[in-house]
Amino acid sequence: MNSPSIPFLDLITPHRQLKDELAKVFDRALETAGFVGGSMVTDFEQEFSRFCGTRHCIGVGSGTDAVRFALITAGVKPGDVVLTVPNTFIATTEGISQAGATPDFVDVDERTYNVDPQQILKYLQVRCSVDGTTGRVYNRRLGKPVTAVVPVHLYGQPADMDSIAEIADRFGLLVVEDACQAHGAEYYSRKEKVWKKAGAMGRAAAFSFYPGKNLGACGEAGAVTTNDDEIARHVRMLRDHGQSRKYYHDMEGYNGRLDAIQAGILHAKLAHLGEWNESRRQAAVRYREMFNAANGSEFPPYEPDWSKPVYHLYVIRVRDRDSLLRRLAEENIGAGIHYPVPLHLQKAYDSFGYKSGDFPVTEKVASEIVSLPMFPNLSAEQQTRVVRAILRFISESREQTVLSASSRTA
Ligand SMILES: *Cc1c(COP(=O)(O)O)cnc(C)c1O
């Protein structure tokens, strides 16, 4: 009766499929001993910037480095306040802090899980004042200028960039995208009447190529994308000890380079990213059809008509989430929670003084979300089992509620 396990994410199959191709990258690196920098890096950068539709891509060591470098080079200064959401991976706020700024939070839209532009506006109008001489916005409690916003395209779904850009323009804020979960996601700009790729909409954007991302390295890697020549030049220096040329340091930088083997691997995989994303989208369509056919139309994630998400994660919501997770585990079905504890309630941010109730949408959602199996080679049979297990669990817990209600009245 023990059914075979369905992984939450199958990272093994695609690597088996590409094994020869990936091994060649390693061979080539051994032949030339070009392990850091060189043409493997620049070739990948060129190809990824083409994929995103940006002038530049600068490979760096991780997504966290990418957030930090993008913010510093876009113009965020130590002492600034940078807005983002509390329902993201901590790397978003680590990047902000490492740029010397203070992260602060605004709540999200319950349907998209992404930043609610109205909450940004409310934050700026209620908690901030505009300095009469500089025209800058100051957070009154912190006594610091608010200079940037980092929308996160969470789960591979683009944030509502038109509305964010409009508010940012009005208040003089920079927009830097956290596109670490959104390689290839598209957003329809109603203002410009054109589809745009994640990573091509802010002053700069951060990508992570952590192995589990839609485009993943066989190790650590990240990139900054931008259309701004000056930002690109500055990121190239920052990632490489502030060098303008070898041993000429115009500034202190970091050791934040993308290594050649990872770049070569990413280049080989990038050729498949389009088809992988399409397979994820098809799997999402199948989940939707399966849920809809079984009276479960409340489960499939919301897809605004201005969004082509790439389903880095497929997230549904249920009230009794922890029991469902136990049930899925019993049935050998992988699942996850992204993320169980909102950042404003993390120990690391105790000093911010936030408490339960401060970001009600994020908190409510955090207690209900479940990430279901989602990866390019997920099969319809596997999905049928996942959906059946969930619907069976839901109908049983409804019966239990009815039973316990009737036993109380009896
Ligand atoms: C993965 C991720 C990052 C950071 O990436 P690393 O490569 O692990 O440093 C940043 N933000 C978000 C939203 C992520 O999912």
Summarize the structure.
This protein has twelve helices and 16 strands.
Give structural notes.
- The chain has twelve helices and 16 strands.
- α9 (260-293) packs across α12 (380-409).
- 40% of the residues lie in helices and 15% in strands.
- The relative contact order is 0.16.
- Strands 1, 2, 3, 4, 5, 6, 7, 10 and 11 form a nine-stranded mixed β-sheet that branches. A three-stranded antiparallel β-sheet has the order 9-8-14, with no helix packed on it. The chain has a two-stranded antiparallel ribbon with strand order 12-13.
- The chain has helices at 12-17, 19-32, 39-52, 63-74, 91-98, 117-126, 161-171, 229-238, 260-293, 321-330, 360-366, 380-409, and strands spanning 56-60, 81-84, 102-105, 128-130, 137-139, 144-149, 174-178, 186-189, 194-197, 204-208, 222-226, 243-245, 248-249, 307-308, 314-317, 369-372.
- With 410 residues, it is of the alpha/beta class.
- The chain folds into two domains: 12-269, 3-Layer(aba) Sandwich (Aspartate Aminotransferase, domain 2); 274-402, Aspartate Aminotransferase, domain 1 (Alpha-Beta Complex).
- It binds pyridoxal-5'-phosphate.
- Pyridoxal-5'-phosphate binds at residues 62-64, 88-89, 91-92, 152, 178, 180-181, 208, 210, 222.
Distance between the termini: 38 Å
DSSP helix fraction: 40-55%
Write the CATH homologous superfamily of the largest domain: Type I PLP-dependent aspartate aminotransferase-like (Major domain)
Unreliable runs, pLDDT <50, ≥5 residues?
A: none
Fill in the CATH topology of the largest domain: Aspartate Aminotransferase, domain 2
Using only CA atoms, what is the Rg?
22 Å
Look at the structure and give the CATH class of the largest domain: Alpha Beta
Give the beta-strand count: 16
The CATH architecture designation of the largest domain is 3-Layer(aba) Sandwich
Question: Element order, helices and strands?
Answer: HHHEHEHEHEEEHEEEEEHEEHEEHHEH
Number of helices: 12
Strand content: 15-25%
Largest beta-sheet characterization: 9 strands, mixed
Label the structural class. Answer: alpha/beta
